[in-house]
Design a protein that fits this description.
Blueprint lengths: L7 H7 L4 H6 L15 H7 L4 H11 L3
């Protein structure tokens, strides 16, 4: 399960199936150097993305 405290780069590395969700929300985190240290909550806040919606979408595509 993905949580808002997780580091963005870790999410993408561990769950590459989430990449389209990041693109859908216009979060080009996979190209950003700060993704190695930025939490999902912080990234969503900076880009004015609703963290609840983002978490639901990310967790919805995760492989089980």
């Amino acid at each position: 399960m993905i949580t808002q405290e997780m580091i963005i780069a870790d999410i993408i590395a561990q769950h590459p199936e989430t990449l389209p969700v990041f693109r859908q929300y216009h979060l080009d985190c996979y190209e950003c150097q700060i993704a190695d240290i930025e939490t999902l909550s912080h990234g969503a806040g900076v880009h004015k993305v609703d963290i609840g919606e983002l978490l639901a979408s990310l967790n919805g595509v995760m492989k089980k």
